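Reagents: none. Just compute today. Transmembrane channel-like protein.
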Amino acid sequence: SLAEVFLPEEPGAAAPVGFLQQLPSYQSALRRRNASGGGTQGYSAERRGAEARRLEQEGGELVARPAREHPLSIAEKRRDLQQADTKYLSGWEQWKRTSNKSLKKVLNEVKELSSYLELWRHDIHSIEGKFGTGIQSYFSFLRFLVLLNFVMFILMFSFVTFPSIISKYGIFNSTFSKIPAQNTEPHCTVYTPSGNKGLVYFYTYLKDLLSGTGFLEVTSLFYGYYTIHTAWFSILSYNLPLAYLLATFFYLALSFFWIIKRSVEGFKQNLVHDEDQFQSYCNKVFAGWDFCITDPNAARLKHRSLQYELQTDLEEERLKRKIADRTVKEKLRIYSLRIFINIIVIAVLSGCFYSIYRATVFSQENSSDISNMNFQANLLVQYLPSIVITLANFIAPQIFSFLIGFEDYSPAFEIRLTLMRCVFVRLANIGVLLFSLWSQISYCATDECKACGYNYKLYPCWETEVGQEMYKLTIFDFIIILAVTLFVDFPRKLLVTHWSFKPVQWCGLQEFRISDNVLEIIYGQTICWIGTFFSPLLPAIATIKYFIIFYIKKISLIHTCKPSARPIRASSSNFFFLLVLLIGLVLAFIPLGISIAHIPSSKACGPFRSFNTSWEVVPYTILGFPTGLQQVLYGIASEAFAVPFFVVICLIMFYFMALAGAHKRVVEQLREQLVLESRDKLFLIRKITEAQRH
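Predicted 3D structure written out:
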């Protein structure tokens, strides 16, 4: 019978060795061993075969049966195995295992309870259920930025703002001391904030609130407020300049490692999805459906999305074949066209950058001259850089989306290239704004100005001026998002719903484009990272801003927008969001590093007015340490330590690269084993079919 041919006579007996050696997996392994060479391996195979024959002849049951052979449930098998292991443990090991189990159970319960306290947990799950994981990833990303900015605010408030406030007002018997700027000309220390005096109209307060001038300029919102050098709490001294600088470094490092930690998971999933094209097809066909979707419209959209993804994959395969079949003449034509289009792109970027530069220079030169301007004109002049940057962020992506269609790229590459160009425009615009400000700050044409190191007449406290620009960009960005939702999306929804005019119906509802919305908030977050050094309470404003934007976008998504017809996968979108956010953070390092280490600090305001640059507080503090500690710190900062440290880091990096290569080879071998097992199954099915026929 079939059982007699393929199965052992007793349940615990070994399988026939001759039959097992016919399996394709055994034959492949045998060929691999013979090819790699060695009679030793052949001998070991013969020895294993003899051992298997001995077990077969004995017919006895194996001493240790695998857990899967026990006729019990998984929970019972696990419990029995644990009890069997416990018998051979000492009392201390048993108590240790029991304590670890109890601790793990408590931690799991605490984690489960804390999940109910998670911000917007119900709202995000509701969005995920109606619109899928792609749109849900945007709102999860927005929640991450809210938490990040809140932590940044707690950090800056605890170590910078709070000690300054309590020492200035003498709370907890605290006092403070100020060190005047040394070796500095008297005219460099003159700073008169533009505070409001006498009778003030209401619209003046409104202008100050929008531009950060007037009564806001002398508050703890900006850099110029923090003029204390040392705060004394009873017998303890607090070095505010050092705390200010270290808090800046710490919130940048915290942001960097937090982003890296979150991006690792998305990077792993992205590698799994993008590794093999055949695997991508299998994932779309057999595992592409999002079972979180409950809304019928979202389900139809998901159907279209899967159809679009499959069409895109097929189109990419067709384009690859078309590219391979291109003649030299066609290649010359397409490359010439791409070069021409990239020249146009560079020209558009240059026009945007020059417009921002001219607008910034004009605004800085005329914003202080309010005698010949009314309220609206003065506010327009102050917000002119923000307006030009917003227009550039809107117009340039439209031009890029139009030009990309002529470059004959694959659909997936078109999306990535357009997004990277838009990212570059948004982040580079901030850099051009800062460059324009610094060119005005460092411009000195007289000896008096050169004695200060910066343009003391136009910028007596230049850090506060930069902080005000970052504040205005943050406020204007929020106003634009709110205005577009109220005055564009809602009227468009009403027109499409209640007016059957064909052009209106052809336009349809506004799509909720995930990438564009993400670029908006990453642009705002980059501003916050740069501006926090010049405006320590800016993270609090960013936290409130993103908190309100969450509800604005949620209402807009549910009532005025439709999901994009070309959504991107949640795993790849999360990784892309964090990658762009990391680019924004790296961009923030550059201007902050230049401001801290290169540009002379203001001599009329701020905690660093007694130092030439903000960084000089570090060596000044080290001079107060004991001699032995100074030598250790100087040794760490020397080349004698830096070069070996760099070598060790390189060796560690090479080790992990080799380890990753080894893991990759193991994964490839496991895949080969899976393929061989599938061949074994086909072989067994074929044998069973032949036996049934006979």
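The longest strand covers residues 174-177.
Action item: order primers for follow-up constructs.
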